[in-house]
Amino acid sequence: MTGSGRGRRVGVRCDAGAAIGVGHLVRCVALAEELCARGVEVVFLGEVSGSPWAAEQLRARGLPLVAAPQEPELLAALVGELRLDAVVLDSYTLAPDTGAAVGGRGPVVLVIIDGDPLGQEADLYLDQNLGAEHRPFPATGRGKRLAGVSYVLLRDSVRRCRRSPWARRVPGVLCFFGGTDSAGVAPAWAAALRRTGLPYEATVISPVPFQAAGRVRVIPPTDRLPELMAEADLVLTAAGSASWELLHLGVPTALTWVADNQSAGYEALVHAGLAAGLGREPGPAAVATLARLLATPTLREEYGRRGRNLIDGRGRERVADALLGILG
Fold this sequence. Notes:
The chain is an alpha/beta fold. The protein contains twelve helices and 15 strands. The longest helix has 15 residues, at 23-37.
């Protein structure tokens, strides 16, 4: 492990909110926790709007949030004003020359990607997706790539959690679709569970309250999510950042996807047998898959067993080592 980063200042450029979700922020918070533990001062640059839960993730950790411009040169100027030694970029919407503009001012640039680097130049690229290390990398920049699940970024609250499903007579199901359910799919998937006709107890996380039939409770986004995942017999979710948390915990998972950039991760996890695939829509095929999972404990547990040792929880340490190693 690379030693202390005391005296270093790192900026994290990402956005979060009701419309775009919180996946980028969640994984950046995990890296920020690791850097702060090593004495690095971390500041977030961007916008967090429409999600009190997302804003609280920064406030509770004492991580300042500074409004940041989209224009590459203006962002680079802000980085200079803040005297940052390194900048982490995690966004699909930044202009392709943002990394070059920021790096041109001197800071080390780490870009977090999901396959395509979208034209960004960087000293370091991070792609934590399953099998990323085996896929071609189209970057033309100077940077080194950290690729694969060895580099998955997990928050403290997940790393200290252990799976502890309750002893109950019917399966306990947890449903959530990102930190904000930006696609608004929670009611439809709750209805799909009901159409299985099988007994279950479900907790559905949704920022917008709704009425659900049967033994279902609907709750807002919560910091208890890792504990709720660890207690569940089955989790129904989208193939986003939470997939890695569930694999680390060894929780049986059924996946859908709610954004096009999640489809590759969905296919990889389902093809590898690490999660059950429901498809994108809660139609008859998805209902039939859910029914098999609810009715067959051994099938559920097999999914959990396959993923249990895949994510060791030390990915953020490896990323921090690489970043601080460049800073020297």
